[in-house]
Amino acid sequence: MPLLPGKTAVITGGAQGIGLAIAEAFVKEGAKVVLGDLNLDAAEAAAKELGGPDVAQAARCDVTSASDVQALVHSAPEAFGSLDVMVNNAGITRDATMRTMTEDQFDQVIDVHLKGTWHGTRTAAAVMREQKSGAIVNISSLSGKVGMVGQTNYSAAKAGIVGMSKAAAKELAHHGVRVNVIQPGLIRSAMTEAMPQKAWDQKMAEIPMRRAGEPDEVAGVALFLASGLSSYMTGTVLEVTGGRFM
Questions:
Q1: Which terminus of the chain has a lower count of CB atoms within 10 Å, N or C?
Q2: Torsions phi, psi of 42, nearest 5?
Q3: Is 71 exposed, middle or buried (0-12, 13-18, 19+ CB in 10 A)?
Q4: Contact of 238 with 183, CB cutoff 8 Å
């Protein structure tokens, strides 16, 4: 039996990388998905690959905009009849040391990651609490646990997602809505593979499993948190790191 039969999920940053891998895992397990992304063309191409409009739909969404997120979230029940899972995954990096980072670079990352996740959690929760069910999965990062050089903005935002999610989990538990967090470590992607070899080697040396993770390995954990397999879990943080900084 599939794990998400008849369920509908909204995924921000769903056009590529971890977001797309999560969408693929969900569709494989019987869900229908709405992909929100700044790049509408990429989101539409991804939705087509996932099976077309009967299974996946795309929408342009700037997660820093409350109205964009509201339109995205409400498009799910309009298209497929329900909103059962919300995955707040959209993100950017603007890395620089604290000495050289601009205020705009700090604000951009906080707005996309932390405020964007707040918009998604808040808007989805308003729908889910009325139906007395739902699962929200927020994507943090190992950077939010340990802090990374050159990422005072990113580390702050990702740590904030954990605290915000725990608070939301407490507010929503009695409404039947669960909120959980994933903290990925070094996951193979176009962004991480573009980093200098020296930086890559340093990170690899910190991983007991001696390899980078794959997007579908994060997607498997998102699937677990979205499904009934985790029905008695809320406010939890699951690390997908190969043991790095355990």
A1: N
A2: -65, -40
A3: middle
A4: yes
- Measured N-to-C along each axis, helices 116-131 and 66-80 cross at an angle, to the nearest 10 degrees, of 40
Residue 32 backbone phi and psi in degrees, to 5? -110, 150
- Could you tell me the CA-to-CA distances from 173 to 61, 136, 154, 222 in Å, in that order? 28, 11, 28, 19
Q: Catalytic site residues?
A: 154
What residues form DSSP beta bridges with 187?
213
Does 187 score more than 80 pLDDT? Answer: yes
H or E segment to which residue 179 belongs: strand 177-184
Residue 227 contacts residue 180 (beta carbons within 8 Å): no
Please write the tens of the pLDDT for every residue from 115-146.
Answer: 999 999 999 999 999 999 999 999 999 999 99
Predicted model pTM: 0.97
Please choose, from the candidates 134, 124, 138, the residue with its C-alpha nearest in 3D space to the C-alpha of residue 183: 138
Give φ, ψ of 150 to 5 degrees: 85, 5
Domain ranges of the chain: 8-239
Q: Is 147 left (phi over 0), alpha (psi -120 to 50) or beta?
A: left
Q: What is the predicted pLDDT for the residue at 51?
A: 97
* CATH (residue range 8-239): 3.40.50.720
CB 147 within 8 A of CB 98: no
Mean pLDDT of 4-19: 97
Helix axes 40-50, 17-28, angle to 10 degrees: 30
Distance in angstroms (rounded) separating the CA atoms of residues 222 and 23 = 10
The whole-angstrom separation of Cα 81 and Cα 221 is 25
Nearest to 14 by CA among 120, 89, 92: 89
